[in-house]
Design goal:
The protein is an alpha/beta fold. The chain is built from 9 helices and 15 strands. The strands form 5 sheets. Strands 2-1-15 form a 3-stranded mixed beta sheet, with helices on one face. The chain has a 3-stranded mixed beta sheet with strand order 3-4-5, with helices on one face. A 3-stranded mixed beta sheet has the order 6-7-8, sandwiched between helices. Bound molecules: citrulline (CIR). Citrulline binds next to loops. This is arginine deiminase.
């Protein structure tokens, strides 16, 4: 099977997803840091809406089993691994409640025939929501509550032999360690050199690097970012300038449309706003080609 999702010039062809299922239905919202809109039944329907958009785009979904395993956040498949042309890297979660998720991804890659070129363990922590491909051989990592220096060094050891450079940027404190702030909470690539950003929290050096490389950086409306708990900015690129976002943020949508994007929306209050993860977090690209 072909694999590798680091090159954003290509459309999404294969992706891993997991339905919310019984694990989310039984989750205690206080324990999981889910917000007042938390509603597992609505979340299940909203997830199906997103899956339909992904399928209609032509991408094939590989479903992780959604067992009664207590792993409510495992639907946020983006965070637990990532896939390069050399193979998959399986990560080690920063959030304690998510520690058992990597086993699900190891099983998926075995089933898909994707080799695993490295796995983080022990005190090495990286969540893939903290990873952004600047180009196919340059991977940015946000060092913060979920991803640490030991994890960054482990990623360098795994990726350097494959010609991939890892560049680390520090994330801000924002509202503290219990909230979910990933690097991808602050930037969503819409095309190889275009992204939607929340500039006030984006690492300055990253903004500077992208600007130097000639990226077009669209500043997402701040009131919609705040009202959505950051989810207005969480936009999945299906193909360059063909994107998916949570419904209800018309000025963020209009900004992307004004820059040539086709924007599809789905209802995500119970799934995304409540559980702190949007369409990028709910999908783990395996192949762009
Ligand atoms: N990449 C992402 O931003 N993922 C969202 C994960 C949300 C989940 N409730 C978490 O706290 O890990």
């Amino acid at each position: 099977m072909t694999f590798g999702a680091e090159d954003r010039t290509h459309p999404l062809k294969r992706v891993i997803m997991r339905v919310p299922g019984p694990a989310l239905a039984k989750a205690d919202p206080t324990e999981w840091h889910y917000g007042p809109q938390f509603n597992p039944e609505r979340a299940q329907r909203q997830h199906a809406e997103l899956a339909e958009i992904v399928t209609n785009s032509g991408a094939e979904i590989h479903w992780l089993p959604s067992d009664d395993d207590g792993l409510a956040d495992a639907m946020f498949v983006q965070d637990t691994s990532f896939v390069t042309r050399a193979g998959a890297v399986v990560l080690n979660m920063g959030k304690a409640l998510r520690k058992a998720e990597p086993a699900l991804h190891l099983d998926a890659y075995a089933a898909l025939g994707v080799p695993v070129i490295g796995q983080l363990t022990g005190d090495q922590q990286i969540e893939s929501g903290d990873l952004v491909w600047i180009d196919p051989v340059t991977l940015a990592v946000g060092r913060g509550a979920r991803s640490n220096q030991q994890g960054i060094e482990a990623l360098r050891d795994i990726l350097t032999p494959h010609g991939i450079q890892v560049v680390a940027y520090d994330l801000p404190y924002w509202t503290g360690p219990s909230a979910c702030l990933h690097l991808m909470s602050l930037i969503s690539p819409l095309a190889p050199k275009m992204a939607l950003i929340h500039a006030p929290l984006l690492p300055y050096a990253m903004w500077q690097e992208l600007t130097k490389r000639g990226w077009t950086l669209l500043h997402a409306p701040e009131d919609e970012f705040t009202a959505s708990n950051g989810l207005s900015l969480n936009v999945l690129m299906l193909t360059p300038k063909d994107v998916v976002m949570v419904d209800g943020f018309p000025r963020t949508r209009a900004l992307m449309e004004a820059h040539g994007c086709r924007v599809q929306v789905f209802e995500g209050d119970a799934l995304c706003i409540a559980c702190e993860g949007g369409p990028t977090c709910l999908t783990r690209p395996v192949l762009r080609a």
